[in-house]
Automatic annotation (TrEMBL), chain A:
One Pfam family per UniProt: ABC2_membrane_3
GO-annotated cellular components: ATP-binding cassette (ABC) transporter complex
Annotated protein name in UniProt: ABC transporter
Record domain ABC transmembrane type-2: where: 17-241
Organism: Planotetraspora mira
Location of this chain's protein in the cell: Membrane
Amino acid sequence: MPHYLKIELLRMFRNKRYVIFVVVFPVVFYLLYSNLWGSEVDQATGVKASVILMVSMAAYGALAASIMSSAVPWAQERQSGWLRQLQITPLPGWAIITTKLIASMVLVLPSLLLVGLAAVLTQHVSLPVGEWFGLIGALWIGVIPFVALGLTIGSLLPPDTAQPVAMIGMFGLALLGGLWFPVDIMPSAMKSIAHVLPSYDYASIGWNIVAGDAPETSAVLGIAGWAVALGALAVLAYRRATVRA
Amino acid sequence: MNAIAFTGVTKKYGDVVAVDGLTLDIPIGSTVALLGPNGAGKSTSINMLLGLLRPTSGDIKVFGNGPDQAVTRGDIGAMLQEGSLIPELTVRESVDFIRRLYPDPLPLDEVLRMADLTDLAGRRADKLSGGQTQRVRFALAIAGGPKLLLLDEPTAAMDVESRRSFWDNMRAYAAQGRTIVFATHYLEEADENSDRVVVIARGQVVADGTAAEIKSGVAGHAVSFRLGSQSAAGLDALSGVSAVEIQADRVTLRTGDPDATVEALYRKTTLDVRDLQIHGADLEDAFLALTKES
């Protein structure tokens, strides 16, 4: 299994779509946004926009990485016969989906770390060590529902459909979850949608941490609930995709 | 012990019967061709051997175990009909990955050599031609050093040259004492590359033996000559003749015993026999006779 994980990581790092959407986009947008608004200060928390944007763009990158590295590659492997190639080896079925989950989680790290690095180097963002660890740890563990969503899409849809659905899901969650624009400036209808999305809970945990606050219980429970629900869905979809008739 | 034992295996898809009470034993170390037209049930049988499909009824054993167990133990390697590779991985990476999933794999360099891939080892899968991809898929099938190798129409995407070297490679693998079962609808392939041909039609075994035995089992010999304007009356009564066909000025006598037929032709008729030809049965005739819809 470690070798399988290595192979999965290797191929994604060679995948242009992954590198552009996931590694380059968040960093570039962070540099752009933070140059425009980085020095503004949030009235309620006193946190500089350069720090809030760092959380938002890291969250966006992680969200994109988790969905992009799971949905479409997995749908392609099912359709191309690679899954069957694996099914006729001694590799157990659970190892396939477990490796996919772990690989996606590892592939989230470049976005988190590079956006953080960009923030430190260009905007001189500095946080207490504990907050850094808390932030990166929370944003890392918090991607589980998004990986589960990606694997569900990949298990249920053929690649042609999985591609647009994954894109819409990714940008929809990012936009409506307040990763691109603050939820506070959204119309009230959108605001109420935002508040039930896992992406909002996910990013708000990060915003709380950099404001020096403990994450809100509702956000933590929200993410955990989504992780359980989407995780169960992913397992069911995986079973359906690999059923032996 | 048998490598493969099918006992009364039936597979239905709704009302369609793909495999119909198949009973077949394949001893360890043999190379067997499953020969049949499209839709005969060859692929379904192979997929059931791999545990990818479950029989509706009947029992399948691979080295005495169920198919799932055989797969888990790494006893089976297979090259299925379609299948592409991970585009971003090189030949070496893909082969090595699959190889390491097996408990007792072949050395990587040996696998690459046996599949003629040594020179392509560093190439990414998305830069390979169709024939090269097939070679990699063959390499993936043998990488784990499986005791049983299943090949489902392996040469379908290959040109003539690749086909020949493919079968050479397969025979080299078979020579290591492995059991090989391949499905094909190419008759020459079955004839040249197996030591036993199992003809399957409509989900059942319709003939089973060496290629020579199968040929001789059908009255596939033919004696033909130029008849011109002479009468064909009485030819059907000659020794061995099972059918008389006339095309233009030529008559063809289908016979199970060409020697007797020719002798009778000269001794018992007064015909002026010109341009005599005797055709042996080829596997194609046998195959068509056996698989014809009854």
